[in-house]
Design brief:
With 316 residues, the protein is α+β, with helices and mostly antiparallel strands. The protein has two domains: 6-120, Rossmann fold; 133-290, Tumour Suppressor Smad4 (Sandwich), CATH 2.60.200.40. It contains nine helices and 15 strands. The strands form three sheets. Strands 5, 6, 7, 8, 9, 12, 13, 14 and 15 form a nine-stranded antiparallel sheet that branches. It has a four-stranded parallel sheet with strand order 2-1-3-4, sandwiched between helices. Strand 5 and strand 6 form a beta hairpin. It is elongated and about 60 Å long. It starts with 5 loop residues before the first strand and ends in a 20-residue tail after the last strand.
Length: 316
Amino acid sequence: MEHSRKQVLLIVNPCAGPDSTRRSAEDIVRHFPADEFEIEIKKTKGHGDATELVRSFANDKDLVICCGGDGTLNETINGVMDLPRRIPIGYIPTGTTNDLASTLGISRDIEKAAALIRNGHTNSYDIGLFNNRYYSYVAAFGAFTRSSYATKQWMKNIFGHFAYLLNGVFKEWKNISSTHMKIEYDDGEMEGDFSFGSISNSTSISGIFRLNKDEVKLNDGYFEVLLVRKARVSEAPSLFNKIRKKEYDGKRIILLKTSKVKITADAPIAWTLDGEYGGEHQTVMVHVLSKAIDICSPADNVLFERPQETAAPTQP
C-alpha cells in the first residue's frame, strides 16, 4: 500500500523576529521529510493575512504549521477556529517575545521545534473569546501594554525583546493613568480605578511579567486575571517590581481565576491581544473556550492537566 503523506499548510511570517534569527520557508521545510509530509507554503504580507490563508487553504489539510511570533499564531488560531473541523496546529516561534511558546515548552531552535511537530503529540489548549475575536494567551489593558504593538519593527529587528523593555518599562510608565471600571467574574465583582489588567492563559506576559507555574493550567477551563488598582507615576517602579516578584496582596495587586469576565469601563480603553492592537472598547466580555484547539507541544508539560486515571475496581 502506498504511504500516505500528511497534508500540511505552512504559514510563514517573513518579517517576524530579529533579522539574525529569521528563517526562510525552505529552511523550515527541509526539517520535514518529503516522503512523510506534503507541504504547501503561504507567506503573510500584512495584518490579518494568516487568518485568511488558513480559511482559504487549510480545510483539506491534516496540520497547520505557523512560523512567526505571537501575533501570527493569534491569526492562525482565528483561522483554524473558523474551519468546519479542528485541525492541529504546529508552532515554530520566530517572533520577538514568543511568550506562548515559552509556556507551551516549544523551543526557539527551529530544529527542535520541527522535531516536536514531527513527533505528532498534541495537547488540548484553552483559548479566549474576546467579544467576537479569539485570542491565544493574553488580553490586556493599561500600563506597559501599548509597547507590545507600538514598538517599531526596526527596534525589534535590532534589539529583539530588549526593544520592549526600552519602549515599555523604561519609557511608558511616565504615562500611567487609570480608568474607573466594574469587573464581573465567576465568584463576584469589584469596582474601582485600575491602571493595568490582563486576562491570560500563560506563565509569561509580554516577556516581562511571569506567573507561578503552580497557578496556571493551560486546559482547565480557567484564565488568570491580574489587576493593578490606580497607580501614581511615582509608584510605578515599586508596583512593577512587586508584580515581577509575584507579590499579590489582594488589594492593590489582585490575581484571580475565572472562566468568564465582563469589564465595563467609564470610557473606551485600548486593549492588546497577544501582543497586537485589539482596538478600544468600553465593554469587554471574555469567555474561556476549554480545550478549543490542539497544539503540538511536549507530552510532559506539567502545565497541562491530565485525565485522571480510572482506579482499579475493588475486589469484593
